[in-house]
Amino acid sequence: MRERESYWEIIWENIDYDILAQDEKLDRDRLDELVELMVDTVCSNRELIRVAGGDYPAEVVKSRLLKIGSSHIAYVLERMRETTTYVLYIKKYLLAALYHAPLTLDRS
Questions:
Q1: pLDDT tens sequence across 12-66
Q2: Which of 16, 23, 30, 22 shows the shortest CA–CA distance to 79?
Q3: Which of 11, 41, 74, 85 has minimal CB crowding within 10 Å?
Q4: Do 74 and 31 touch, CB atoms closer than 8 A?
Q5: Dihedral through CA 51, CA 97, CA 9, CA 70, nearest 10?
Q6: What distance in Å separates the CA atoms of residue 84 and residue 62, rounded to the nearest whole number?
Q7: What are the beta bridge partners of residue 54?
Q8: For the chain, what is the largest distance between any 2 Cα atoms, rounded to a whole number of angstroms?
Q9: pLDDT in tens, 75-108
C-alpha cells in the first residue's frame, strides 16, 4: 500500500495536480480518473502492459507515465473533450492517450 501512496504523490507532483484541479476548463472527475489510471498502471505487477494493441515492457510504460507533466494531462483532457467518437473501452483509450501524449503533444 505504501508503494501506491508513493506513486500517487509522485504523479500528483509531476502533473501539478493542485494547479490543474483549479482550471475550470478541465473536467475534475476526468482528471481524477487519469491519475487513478496512471497509479494503477505504474503499480501493476505485470511484466508486459498492453497499450494501443501492443505489449510493452512494464518498466517502459511506467517510465513514460512517470514523465508525464501538466501540459500532457491538459492536452489529453482537451482532446477527450473534443472527441465525438464513441469509445467502448475508455480505460484502454485513456492509457493509450497518456502513453502517447509526450509524442503527440510535441507534434501538434
A1: 999 999 999 998 888 899 999 999 999 999 999 999 999 999 999 999 999 999 9
A2: 30
A3: 85
A4: no
A5: 150
A6: 29
A7: 51
A8: 39
A9: 999 888 888 888 889 899 999 999 999 887 655 5
- The pLDDT of residue 35 is 96
Whole-number pLDDT of residue 81: 86
Global pTM reads 0.89
Mean pLDDT, the chain, integer: 91
- The 8-class DSSP code of residue 15 comes to T
Count how many residues are written for the chain.
Answer: 108
Q: What is the residue-wise DSSP string for 30-95?
A: HHHHHHHHHHHHHT---SEEEETTEEEEHHHHHHHHTT--HHHHHHHHHHHHH--S--SSHHHHHH
Contact 37, 94 (CB under 8 A): yes
Location of C-alpha cell 494547479: 19
**Look-up: residue for cell 507534434?**
107
